[in-house]
Amino acid sequence: xxxxxxxxxxxxxxxxxxxxxxxxxxxxxxxxxxxxxxxxxxxxxxxxxxxxxxxxxxxxxxxxxxxxxxxxxxxxxxxxxxxxxxxxxxxxxxxxxxxxxxxxxxxxxxxxxxxxxxxxxxxxxxxxxxxxxxxxxxxxxxxxxxxxxxxxxxxxxxxxxxxxxxxxxxxxxxxxxxxxxxxxxxxxxxxxxxxxxxxxxxxxxxxxxxxxxxxxxxxxxxxxxxxxxxxxxxxxxxxxxxxxxxxxxxxxxxxxxxxxxxxxxxxxxxxxxxxxxxxxxxxxxxxxxxxxxxxxxxxxxxxxxxxxxxxxxxxxxxxxxxxxxxxxxxxxxxxxxxxxxxxxxxxxxxxxxxxxxxxxxxxxxxxxxxxxxxxxxxxxxxxxxxxxxxxxxxxxxxxxxxxxxxxxxxxxxxxxxxxxxxxxxxxxxxx
Length: 431
Ligand SMILES: *Cc1c(COP(=O)(O)O)cnc(C)c1O
Prior knowledge:
The structure is a single chain. By secondary structure, this protein is of the alpha/beta class. It contains 13 helices and 16 strands. It has helices at 9-12, 53-56, 65-77, 89-101, 115-131, 153-157, 190-207, 231-243, 296-300, 321-336, 339-354, 385-391, 413-428, and strands at 32-36, 39-42, 47-50, 106-112, 140-144, 177-179, 211-216, 220-221, 227-228, 247-251, 275-278, 290-295, 362-368, 371-376, 394-395, 402-405. A hairpin with a 2-residue loop joins β13 (362-368) and β14 (371-376). The radius of gyration is 22 Å and the shape is globular. The relative contact order is 0.16. Mean pLDDT is 95; it is low at 1-5. The structure holds pyridoxal-5'-phosphate. Pyridoxal-5'-phosphate binds at residues 114-116, 119, 148-150, 217, 222-223, 251, 253-254, 279-280.
């Protein structure tokens, strides 16, 4: 267990300001010096299985020889070149590949450098789609309770307004509409879906005229606590959006590239979203990058004889060729090595090892694709679990009431069992 002693910052972790942390009491004792596959090697020689893929992005494992090679080959030509006014084959091929593998109809790709910026781009694109058609009144976005879409300003405005971590910025971020998080899980009944959809119908009927878009994390609200929900909800939501001239944005930053059991969560539904955002697994966790994809109809609304309808956005590193090169290779490997069947095996094992687990502290256990979660009653219950897991060779990072795993897809059954054992042993330990 950690003790709250005064910390000499320069000795413990230098001058780095760490994420989501009270720096006054933060202690970091694990220092990574090497990685291979799913293993993180620490400065003291300890080896940890990464149960959470470095915040859900290292899909192919660390230090992958082919991914390393793809990047090295690109770097030896040029690691970066601007996308303003210059084209290059790597970025173009990656965009074409993304259009090829995403749902029919998403034909245009706007690159940026992180999931948050990809979401900002999506929201800005949706609003301007209407502005370009003279519909200046369409300025609002609808999001779900429990949503997480990133930490920048427009993203904060569509994160859960009550439980989320951005509460103190209310009044500064734009005020948006929120609907209850879909209930009933992945296999929700028709009645449960109908009740949730009814709330959307009412909101759209009252305010549709001012609403430009609805944004959701399809099927899995990740940082909001692994709330899995029904594809039927999304099918019906799409129909409602269409009826009220509201664009539907799928934030697939976390769900994209296999996490829910299909290449994209969208594939569980009949929906092609109007806009879709990819990041995290886009480069197999090698580099920060994002892609915001959209339809020809939306793209078309930016075309005119006037510069005033153009999309005025352009992150310095958008379309970075090194990120695109590694992303292209990651997709090739994903398809060649049939990662979807690996994910199906992970899902089955997680179901076998987690779903029946019962304990007085447990609210529910849930699994979808290569993600599994134990929800506990009391968020303080898992204080100390990181040290406990590290001693048993596992790197895990619970938050709020959720102890979860989202492993790299190359994990072996033995390594995955080590993770689920640790998750369960925490409850069964002597206290
Ligand atoms: C992680 C995440 C983001 C933000 O992505 P960053 O690359 O961290 O900016 C946005 N949406 C969802 C669903 C995410 O999980």
